[in-house]
Task: structure prediction
Amino acid sequence: MSVAFLLVLAGGLVTSNNAGLSVPDWPTTQGSWWKIPPLIGGVKYEHIHRMIAEFVGLLTIIVAIWTWVVDKRRWMRVLTIGAVLGVILQGVLGGLTVLNLLPPAVSTAHAVVGQTMFCALAAIAMFTGRSWLEEPVARIPQQEARPLIRHSWMLLGFLYLQLILGAAFRHVWTKWGPTGANRWTEHKIIHAFLYPHILNALIVAGLIVYVGLRVLTRYRNMPQLRRPAHALTILLVVQLILGFAAYVTRVVNGVNEVQPTFSLVATTVAHIGVGALILAYAVILLIQAYRHTAGPEVATTA
Amino acid sequence: MKRPCLSLLSALITAALLGCSSAYKPADDSGAPQQKTATVTVDKSTAGGVTGTISFKGKPPKFPAIDMTSDPGCPTAPQPVDVVVVSNGKLANVFVYVKEGLPPGRFAATSGPAVLTQKGCSYSPHVLGVMVGQPLKILNEDTAEHNIHSMSTSNPAFNESQMPRGEPVTRTFERPEMNVPVECNQHPWMRAYMNVMPHPYFAVSGSDGTFAIKDLPPGEYTLAAVHEKYGEQTVKINVGPKGNVKADFSFVPAN
Result:
């Protein structure tokens, strides 16, 4: 999980430093399968990203094999195999985006699948944790759980839209924007992707506040629900501040910068990282909401 | 009801992302390959030319110096930015070219390659012109490794590594194309602009703001001057036999 989170940050560092094409070949690096090139300039970001990705791939395979050996739950085995396939897909998307010189659609897909895989690994970590193996301390009647589940699904949907818009904004900006091929004006990119991203942020914020308050006021006694709700509300505040800072450093101050500034890189990478955490906690909350929903017989007696 | 909405939204996003490449067309960029028509022959005994100066009115923008210390093969001292180079009110790195008025037909490519050199982790020249069919030779005189990433849209884009003082990379281009950024992703400050021209009537303003275009057949032309930050300006000129026309341009800071 921690290595996967590092991988998300390393991916953000590659884009923010405009280093995605510093190593033109893939799957080799400067013609070699195993040699580590001098970690200088853009190569440092791109090759470290590749090395962490390989390590995450290896760890995911180990987890899948381990699960097949020790875990009797069939769905867990399927999930870990799915995670391995997802990691492979993610690697191929990374290769395609390098070989095709960063087409925004592929680069955006790479960002979205990357965070999806992070969520999948977070779910695997949760499913194999002690708290999952123990019975919940209490359950929510089915009728009462329905709105929580419905709003958690809505939150997840709008978070994905947010992720797509944010990734598309960054990748279109890098490829076609004023610091890229200069074929799209900053106004056009901002109107197409950033304003919808900001508008959608308000919807996401509203949903997090609603879901968070619902959980923290009604189900405080259920730690598996309380913890992700707590985390979501705190991360929301951090993310809104980071989003504003990233806007200032890239759009307000960054258009005329000839090299990425530390503040631009730091705020953007932090914004991506916290975004990934929010998505993962939303997935965990949704799964825990299902888990804490009482069966039909409990619902009728409640 | 929700599904069609989501499908429509995803289709719109996909279309926007995929459609990015065709969204911008510079004025002179038809993107058409060079026609296999007759070669235009210019009678040099009657040919004239155009000279001029590019001025910059107002206060040039200030850019923070470039810190290149992330690579030991690059200069250790902070380096000036070459985006807006103004000296005594004269603007360098403006690409001046004949935009309209030339006789139809194909112009033979200039003999010898155009050269783009990576030196001191910067491109020299910062702006260059190359004719369709003329080789572009890219040199690395640095002890640093570079990658050469051309962001062409009408011609095939490319990205290639070049080792320290490595073998030159040579490319030719089949289609006219304006303002093609060439960048190095190992050193994000490195950026040059390449203009692929269908004829040899172009020049780049020097540090004193002057330019000269020679051997222009007599006629009426639209002369254009384009700067990477301040866009394009045009002027009509009339070149008589053996005449030398003066055409000056003046750029002002963008709001």
In short: Chain A has two domains: 1-134, 138-302. Residues 138-302 of chain A form one domain. Residues 217 and 293 of chain A are 17 Å apart (CA to CA).
